Model the fold of this input.
Amino acid sequence: MTATTVRPQPVRLSAPGRAAARLTRRQARRAAAIVALTATGLSALVAAQYRTTFADSIDAGALRALAENPAVRILFGAPLALDDPGGFTVWRTGTPVLVLCGMWALLAATRLTRGEEDAGHWDLLLGGRLRPMDLVVRCASTLCLAAAVIATGVGAGLVVTGTDPTGALLHALCVFGSTVTFAGVGLLAAQLLPTRAAASGLASAVLGASLLLRMLADGVPALAWTAWLTPFGLAARVAPYAHNRIEPLYVLAVLAIAPATAAIVAARWRDLGGALVTLSDTRPARTRLLGSVHSFAVRRALAPTTGWGVGIAAYFLLIGALISSILEFFAENPRFAELAATAGFGGLDSATGFAAAMFALLSIPAGLYAATRITTMAADEKARRWTALHALPLPRYRSAGTEIIVTAGGLAVLLLTAAVAMWVGAVLTGAPLSLPEAIAGAANAAPVALLALGAAALALGWFPEAVGPIGAVPVVGGFLLDVVAQSIGAPGWVREISPFAHLAAVPDTAPDWTASLTLAAIAVVAVTIGLYGYTRRDLRG
Done:
């Protein structure tokens, strides 16, 4: 009897590649589904609302005045085809949807690549035949698939509500191209910089600069050409439901392909754990603010707070400078003020009313700042950066409590920065807004922002894997619920769930102290429960 030799079958690269692709899809699908539902629902809701609220309400002269007003163009983009439900929907929700999808895409890209690499999860995956470039390709494919799902949902929502299919298709292509572009930017930043935080910061800065270019292109005729350099500007040049241009989509395709291709090439030329841009490790030691837990928390918060502050200051300085132009427009076209009130933005025909509406929106970036700071703390814990500190006789509630207090201080700085910036902008253009009024309006946003801090602290103690999403619920989810509830005429108790429903229109009206103190108390309770959970659970690692 002869022995049979069993030869091992060679392992094909496609098998581990498919496994890596399934892993990235599983990591991204939940957040992608949330973004898709939000973008689709918002677009479909506005298109459906148009027929009952805005149709036949605006005459040709008012539309012409709206299109010619530079402040309106800077803030919301060039108004085109407002007599069509699809055109109105693209003008009102196009930029917010593109920003939402782009921000998710770049954060997901840095999380799936640099974040997983920093956590050591790529070490095992790359122990076989896969290369870093292969994983970047899988991540890019996953994000492209998610972008296609989001864009399909937006387009289908517009078609279902009765808008022109051609305009819906073009708008969906703009959503897809913009989302893929910022996903590629995130992938490239993750190859260039050595940490996820740095990569996310760089990619977010690119998104902010792109949005600024769109605003300049729409507001300053001499800079109209800059629209061709940004996904937001290219989407505006496509002009769905109005001109339905195809040419800008070709440029958008180039913007989408270029950064992703560069990221794949860059991944081929760097080591695991390394980056193409290296930071020098020979600089003199910087020992400032390292003497205590409190000073160290302040040191950690300085750079991100400064970055958020610069962005918020630039935006509210622009808002303050546009107040005079906005007031002039509403004075000449009172019908738009009535329509804005119907959509939940009343009082825009006065300086204090307009400031109140803008300061209500300040709760969103302020709350997201707080959530990201606590998310960073959770990430540092997972990366074992807190292990040596907790080995000391230092109660965990003290270290976490210090971070939370410093974050609350950073919130105060951001709110004051926004108030001063808007006041300066108003002074430069002669708008009737005083500094005390601006400070009061910014302070009125604090309770909602503190709710985001409380939710993030609660998640830190009990759900540390979801600190960021849970912390964003009070500001992002609350704002969307408030807008949707007002738009569809939902029962009063539905809107009362949103914290934004309890904010008074300060400085146009007096503060609602009962509601503000109640929201602040809820935030304090959430922080207390979160600290209790943090001291009781095991450290992650």
Remarks:
- The two ends are 56 Å apart (CA to CA).
- The chain is about 75% helix and 0% strand.
